[in-house]
Amino acid sequence: MIDIQQKIKAKGKKNVQQAGIKERYFIIVDEVGELNPSEAVTSDEKKLKQECQRIMLQISRIGAGLGFRLIVASQYPTGDVIPRQVKQNSDAKLSFRFQSQIASRVVLDEAGAELLPQIRGRAIYQAADKREIFQTPMITSNNIEETIKPHIRVIEQEEVHDAIEIETVISKARIDTVTFEEV
Questions:
Q1: Which residues have a Cβ under 8 Å from the Cβ of 182 and sit 6 or more positions away?
Q2: What tens digit of pLDDT does each residue of 120-150 get?
Q3: What are the beta bridge partners of residue 27?
Q4: Which of the listed residues 18, 135, 166, 167 has the most CB atoms within 10 Å of its CB?
Q5: How far apart, in whole angstroms, are the C-alpha atoms of residue 36 and residue 46?
Q6: How far is 72 from 63, CA to CA, in rounded Å?
Q7: Three-state secondary-structure class, residue 106
Q8: Would you call 91 exposed, middle or buried from its count of C-beta atoms within 10 A (0-12, 13-18, 19+)?
Q9: Confidence class of residue 69 from pLDDT cuts 50, 70 and 90?
């Protein structure tokens, strides 16, 4: 994200669309509840989960304009599972049937998912200005693996550490600080 942000700034643009950058990145967090720091057993685990949530929040806040799409999934959504900033920065939400109105409200901010018929794959897609009920296709695990396998990139631990250090240095340097000049 930092590299792309620097490229966009160098071109004097605000986002990837304006800069003509075609690449998009999808970050998928399955079972986001596993990143809940309050459920950590050790202090090291808690620190790791807090760092994961911090990165997830950063992606949700500034990632969209840089070509990063955050996809967060949970089988049991509660208010403490999906970080509020992640939820509020979501352009769209997809919900399958829930057992309770409370779970529906956590994801969609309103009831409805608990009323979907018990048909596998029936879902609600909700964006800012529309809400639709639709049927998703049945996709097997083999289909998923064949489709995504060529696109998986394993990041070495050193790369992750370097990226965190660079992001910390940039944050401390306050590169994105707004300055005002009298004209």
A1: none
A2: 999 999 998 899 999 999 999 999 999 988 8
A3: 70
A4: 167
A5: 8
A6: 14
A7: helix
A8: exposed
A9: very high
Taking Cα atoms as reference points, which of 133, 131, 47 lies closest to residue 96? 133
Backbone phi, psi, residue 179, to 5°: -120, 145
Query: Could you tell me the pTM of the whole model?
Result: 0.69
Q: How far apart are CA 155 and CA 168, in angstroms?
A: 19
Residues 82 and 72: beta-carbon distance below 8 Å = yes
Distance CA 177, CA 179 (A): 6
Tell me the residue ranges of DSSP E strands in the chain: 25-29, 68-72, 92-96, 122-127, 131-135
Q: What would the 3-class secondary structure string for 112-160 be? A: CHHHCCCCCCEEEEEECCCEEEEECCCCCHHHHHHHHHHHCCCCCHHHH
User: At 23, which amino acid appears?
Assistant: E
Q: What is the mean pLDDT of residues 43-50?
A: 94
Rounded to whole angstroms, how far apart are CA atoms 116 and 170? 46
> What sign has the CA pseudo-torsion 64, 66, 67, 72?
negative
